[in-house]
Amino acid sequence: MTTPRILMTPAADAYAYPLLLRHLLANVAQQTTAEIVSGRRRFSYADLLDRVTRLATLLSERGVRAGDTVAVMDWDSHRYLECYFAIPMMGAVLQTVNVRLSSAQIEYTLRESGASFVLHHADFVPLFDGIRPNLPAVRDAILMAEEASADSYEARIAATPPSFRFADFDEHAIATTFHTTGTTGSPKQVFFSHRQLVLHTLALAATLASQPVGQGLRRDDVYMPMTPMFHVHAWGLPFVATMLGLKQVYPGRYDPKHLLALKRRERVSFSHCVPTILRMLLDAREGAESLGPWTVIIGGSALPPSLAEEAARAGLSTLVGFGMSETGPVVALARSPGGDTAELCRAGFPIPLVHARMDEAGGGELMLRAPWLTQGYGAQAASDTLWEGGWLHTGDVAAMDRDGAIRIVDRLKDVIKTGGEWVSSIALEALLMELPSVAEAAVIGVPDSKWGERPVAFVVAAARGDAPSAELLRNGLMHHVDAGRLSRYAIPERVLVLAGLPRTSVGKVDKKALRARLANDEAEAGA
């Protein structure tokens, strides 16, 4: 076998062009008149580039060097967008801190990442002051206050000249790090290189540009994230929106009425969020007010078809994007030329450069390869398990439909086997939410001496309608059994009505908490 030629003799001064985040900003200020909107601020892309350079200068003057980790604790803002670029562009590592974790967990993530500098919003002063004595590696910090007080981020940016000179370096250098937010064990640290983030940005932009009308992103769209910027790069969309020079709106903390007010005032047309935020937006709208046109990518957990249809009646176009913390995150995106709800609620089609397979014929655990998947965790054993056999193991049970779209059946840890048959908690939750008396639903499996496992349902009552009793819900599900769409073993015998479902820091239903609650209720009943 002959060896392929690597490279013909290049020109003496040929530029090798490493894939660095700073190259996403090439020419953008000259090609757009769009604005960045954040709080009371409104500025141009030229201003953004100037502020990014000033921030890098400021951090350099404060002792930050290439390879250092700079942690950020903020709400969604122009400041966070500036950190997305300035910190990695100077060769440092951006740590996006999940501010919804407990103080002990935040301390753990800062310590494990080796953060030496912290940029934090005024809302987190008590938290940061409380844990800082336990973080000897943290040498310095800057307050990210809204107002331009003498020692605040804004005052320092204004007083710092834009003198930093960004240089090229290895595209494999780490650009970002953060911690996963699973419901078991300590958070796991993942990391992504410049090359990975640039390739993810290009692949995601290409996918969104080729989507059916109303299901993608165009240059005249107005972008507003509704997924925290600390969570998996806000799904990578700020990088895409900035590269394309779109108008961007950063909402700060997520209040549904404030989000809707921004949507109306700034003509927001493209966003992304978890189903919980979508539910809140629908509940907060005024009467029969239309929220369209507004394309919203839904991720984090399954999008129930009933919720997608309700959103469509309110003028929203919703579709599912699939990924996880370890995948940077987007690896698949739903589409449907005819706007079919079931098709738009699937995990969707692998985006360019993504290879997907299942570990069994016809379905099984979803495994992935793509150039932007994290290469491991901080712990070697966990990393080896994640990448066993050269494929990243997602922990999701999936199937591939005839048209090549991925359909998530369940999480490996959540799938229920009862009466010798597999029951998908995701499918059962979606059917429960079709019932008019149910606003939200979660299903877990519990051990059963006769059937192996039995499903237990937790539901939140809808604002209107009959109270969701166990008998009412069972009767509501029976027609699916009669139609052959649901096994009779899947009908839950136990239903608990809650005021709200417990959720993780990124809005996913916390099934570990539901299992603990059930165990506690049983212990108290047996006492």
Residues in helix, %: 25-40%
In terms of DSSP E residues, the strand content is 15-25%
CATH architecture of the largest domain: 3-Layer(aba) Sandwich
The major pleated sheet works out as: 9 strands, mixed
Globally, the shape reads globular
- Rg from C-alpha positions? 24 Å
Task: Give start-end ranges of low-pLDDT stretches.
Answer: none
The number of helical runs is: 16
**N-to-C span:** 74 Å
CATH class of the largest domain: Alpha Beta
- The secondary structure category is alpha/beta
- Which homologous superfamily in CATH is the superfamily of the largest domain? ANL, N-terminal domain
CATH topology of the largest domain: Rossmann fold
Total strands: 24
Number of structural units classed as domains: 2
Mean pLDDT: 91
Could you provide a short overview of the structure?
With about 525 residues, the protein is α/β, with parallel strands linked by helices. The protein has helices at about 30, 45-60, 80-90, 105-115, 125-130, 155-160, 195-210, 235-245, 255-265, 275-285, 305-315, 340-345, 380-385, 425-430, 470-480, 510-525; strands at about 35-40, 40-45, 70-75, 95, 115-120, 140-145, 175-180, 190-195, 220-225, 245-250, 270-275, 295-300, 315-325, 330-335, 350, 355-360, 365-370, 390-400, 405-410, 415-420, 420-425, 440-450, 450-460, 495-500. α3 (about 80-90) links the parallel β3 and β4.
List the helices and strands and how they pair.
Layout: H1 28-31, E1 35-38, E2 41-44, H2 45-61, E3 69-73, H3 78-89, E4 93-96, H4 103-113, E5 117-121, H5 125-131, E6 140-144, H6 153-159, E7 174-179, E8 189-193, H7 194-209, E9 222-225, H8 237-244, E10 247-250, H9 256-266, E11 270-273, H10 275-284, E12 294-298, H11 305-313, E13 316-323, E14 330-333, H12 341-344, E15 349-350, E16 355-360, E17 363-369, H13 380-386, E18 392-400, E19 406-411, E20 416-418, E21 421-423, H14 425-432, E22 438-448, E23 452-461, H15 470-482, E24 494-498, H16 511-526
Parallel strand pairs: 1-10, 3-4, 3-5, 4-7, 5-6, 9-10, 9-11, 11-12, 12-13, 23-24
Antiparallel strand pairs: 1-2, 7-8, 13-14, 14-15, 16-17, 17-18, 18-19, 20-21, 22-23
